[in-house]
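User: Could you check the structure of this?
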Amino acid sequence: MYEAIGTHRAIALRPDDDRQLGRQVKRHGYAQELLVGGERIRVAWYQTLGEALRGMEKNTLAGMDYRWDIAVVGLAAVALATLFPWTALFFGDGWIRWTAAAAIIAIAAGYLLANPPPLWRGLLVLPVGSVVLVYGLARALVITALRGGIYWGGRFFPLEQLMRQNTTYDASL
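Assistant: Sure, the predicted structure tokens are below.
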């Protein structure tokens, strides 16, 4: 199947190659399966927060198929979904505060399903993580715009070159 979908040659210059391989599989009519590895597999993508923020620089706009309109709307949606419940909990009133509390409980329940207790860690990580996520995404977009491209694998790639590659396959998948 890997050969049939064009290998990595079909997605050259895509820092989001994992996502793009999945798209190519779908585009060529193949089925995919998901395996939940649980504790059997671990991947340390980044060792520090700084490394994670720099990693976001190469992936954020690529993940939006190099479309600034989608990237800005996506950033606003992530900010609203992750920051609004915490803001509304502390500064909201009446039904807004209760709705925010319900949203936070739902978020915490999702966290608990994916991570073992203690709950206090989740309640600390979630608001801080939300701020860091929104900051990291916004920072990545600003830096990409200012540089006019991304650093990836120790090399600089201009957005013009990356966007040209993006049009060589059906990005709607």
